[in-house]
Predict the 3D structure of the following.
Amino acid sequence: MDWAAQKLTSVTSSLSEQILTHLFSQEELSANTELVQAHRDRISKASNLINVELLWKTYNSRRDLNIDRSSCTFKCPVMLVVGDQAPYEDAAVECNSKMDPTTTSFLKMADAGGLPQLTQLFIRRY
C-alpha cells in the first residue's frame, strides 16, 4: 500500500514537495513554518536540481537493511532519533526492534516532526 501511494505521489507532486513530505509531518507542512519554507526555497532554488532528483530516486530505491538482533551486525553504538510526528516514525521503531538493545539507544523527541534535531534547534533559537 505504501509503495503504491509513494508511486502515485511521485507522479502528481513536485520534487520539492516529495522531499518536504518525507522530512516534515502534515501538521508542520500545513503550518508552513519558517523552517519548512526555508527548506522549500532551498530545494526549489538548488543549482543542481538534477543531482538532487537523482539522489532522491536513489534514496527511494534503496533496499531494506538485513539487520538481525541475534547477530552482531553493527560493531559500534547506534542512536536512533525520531520526532513524535515524523512520517517515518514506524520505520524507526521497527529498525530499533531489530537492533541489539545493549548497543542501541532510541530517542523519540516530543513536538518534533521529520527533522527533530533541526526543529528543536530552530524553536529554541527563536
In short: Helices lie at 2-12, 15-23, 26-31, 34-44, 49-60, 89-98, 116-125. Residues 77 and 103 are 5 Å apart (CA to CA). The chain has seven helices and two strands.
